[in-house]
Amino acid sequence: MKKIKFFLAIMIIMSLFCTCTTNSNVGKFCKPLGNTPCPATRTIPILDELIDAAKRGDNAATMQMMMKGDVLMLDVTISYKILEEGNYWFGVEADGKKLYVANHMVKVE
């Protein structure tokens, strides 16, 4: 019985350690890919709209979102701290504001 309890305790500790140390980019820094500014939004629904417009190739919708101020561009020379992580996005800190960016548009450092 003691061996089973010891084995279960070790398994629980290992699973907690693995869960806490893998697949988490929160607290790390990211930078836009390449030399072109990276689009970021203030909310996740606007990020979804931006991604949908890009999938459709609707440049007019993208430009309209930029003109309204819904889409901002991240500077390629600055690293941004990752505050939050979702399935396809990162919440980053930029000039004291939280912005959302698609995770395929940045590289984690």
Query: How much strand content do the residues show?
Result: 25-35%
Mean pLDDT: 82
**How large, in whole angstroms, is the Cα Rg?**
19 Å
Anisotropy-based shape:
elongated
- End-to-end Cα distance: 46 Å
Low-confidence blocks of residues? none
Task: Report the CATH topology name.
Answer: SH3 type barrels
Kindly state the percentage of residues in helix: 25-40%
The total number of structural domains is 1
SS elements, strand count:
7
Number of helices: 3
Give descriptors for this structure.
SH3 type barrels, elongated, two-stranded antiparallel ribbon, 109 residues, 3 helices
Secondary structure layout plus pairing:
Blueprint: H1 2-21, E1 29-32, E2 38-41, H2 44-56, H3 59-68, E3 71-74, E4 80-85, E5 89-94, E6 97-102, E7 106-108
Antiparallel strand pairs: 1-4, 1-7, 2-3, 4-5, 5-6
How would you characterize the overall build of this protein?
A hairpin with a 2-residue loop joins strand 5 (89-94) and strand 6. This protein has three helices and seven strands. It has 109 residues and is of the alpha+beta class. The radius of gyration is 19 Å and the shape is elongated. It has one domain (25-108): SH3 type barrels (Roll), CATH 2.30.30. It has helices at 2-21, 44-56, 59-68, and strands at residues 29-32, 38-41, 71-74, 80-85, 89-94, 97-102, 106-108.
Outline:
Helices cover 39% and strands 30% of the residues. The chain has helices at residues 2-21, 44-56, 59-68; strands spanning 29-32, 38-41, 71-74, 80-85, 89-94, 97-102, 106-108.
